Amino acid sequence: xxxxxxxxxxxxxxxxxxxxxxxxxxxxxxxxxxxxxxxxxxxxxxxxxxxxxxxxxxxxxxxxxxxxxxxxxxxxxxxxxxxxxxxxxxxxxxxxxxxxxxxxxxxxxxxxxxxxxxxxxxxxxxxxxxxxxxxxxxxxxxxxxxxxxxxxxxxxxxxxxxxxxxxxxxxx
Length: 172
Ligand code: ATP
Ligand code: MG
Hints:
alpha/beta, binds magnesium ion, corrinoid adenosyltransferase activity
């Protein structure tokens, strides 16, 4: 019988969604699994990228382009997100990857760069043996119904509200 993979959602407004996905990636790599990490709205500037490059079986692509956080959205942002989606569609359907992570995909939907149906389609084309992890604030109701595992990171306190910006090695 073929190995059964599942669909995970890590959402909510507390810290830990991307780090949970990276932790799973580390475990999977250690187990000899192949991993594809696709990141929406990010470029290669995150500290994890230099460490991920050292891990066996792991491929990372950041689909963010040159966009700055808070800047108005452009046609180019839309094109980057669509390119990322295309890439993930291939990744989940190819059978090449044991674990595929779509980081911040729900934020891309929230911003209107992708449609909810684009995300649901990833579930449709996914090979049953491929584990799929979707992260980001604002997961929408239908994906919460369809995922096999849903974790909500609930903010109880965050130093961000005291004015502490994202720090290298901790948030970025
Ligand atoms: P991490 O990457 O640390 O696991 P995350 O993926 O759960 O965090 P995101 O929603 O992707 O969190 O947002 C991360 C950015 O938003 C950080 O740079 C952080 O400074 C800022 N931020 C503001 N409030 C929060 C909060 N309550 N939880 C997490 N991040 C927050
Ligand atoms: Mg995140």
